[in-house]
Amino acid sequence: MVGGTQQPRPGTLLDLLDEPLRGELGSLGISTRFSRGERLIHVGDPGEWVMLVTSGVAQVVGEDANGATVILDVAAAGDLIGEAAVLDPDHPQRMASVVAMSTVVVRRIPAPEFRAFLDKRSEAAIGLLVIANRRMRIAQHQRTVTQTRVSFQHIAERLDYLLDTCGYRTEHGWAFTVPWTREDLADFIPTGRTTLITKLTRFEEQGIIARARKFITVADRARLTAVAQGRTALD
């Protein structure tokens, strides 16, 4: 744990930095706490600071080409959010909102302090470029995916990604650190809720997932990953 930060998940900015840089970045700004459902960032607001997530899970929310709500990505411990509006002088407004799915604690870092850190630490700047490029690809895909033709493989990919981001192993399989309702999943995959329920029923019949009321767990992650990678077909 660095500066009160939960162990960063693989692929986050903190994960790409060595221990001294993690500590330095984690000491910037001030600690700020958000409750479940509270907005960390509002779309259209000016980019006056970035946030380093130290604990909890938040969803990055935007719109697709038709104006429908889409969960573009998920942020957890080790993720940096809000950097695009801070670093791009031509687009200094927030391009998406960020909403807490649980209690979320961040280091809120003013833009000048963050820029000064990147100026001094080229390794962090390079790591940020890698993360920003990956995040841009994910967001672009989420905004353009055809909701009416969502495949079993795509749903499996999204569920597998969520487990990497905010999942943990249990004695019965895998669960999420925050509850994902069918409505949340429909916005994240993204697809219509009726289509999602039909597809999830097939996963459940195959013993890959289990559903309790409105929430799901993953009973067989190995098979889920096989479907996600195209090694097993459910169609």
Automatic annotation (TrEMBL):
HTH crp-type domain span: 153-222
Keywords assigned by UniProt, alphabetized: DNA-binding, Transcription, Transcription regulation
Name assigned to this protein: CRP-like cAMP-binding protein
Cellular component terms (Gene Ontology): cytosol
Ranges where the Cyclic nucleotide-binding domain occurs: 13-118
Coiled-coil segments: none
One example GO MF annotation: DNA-binding transcription factor activity
SMART domains membership: cNMP, HTH_CRP
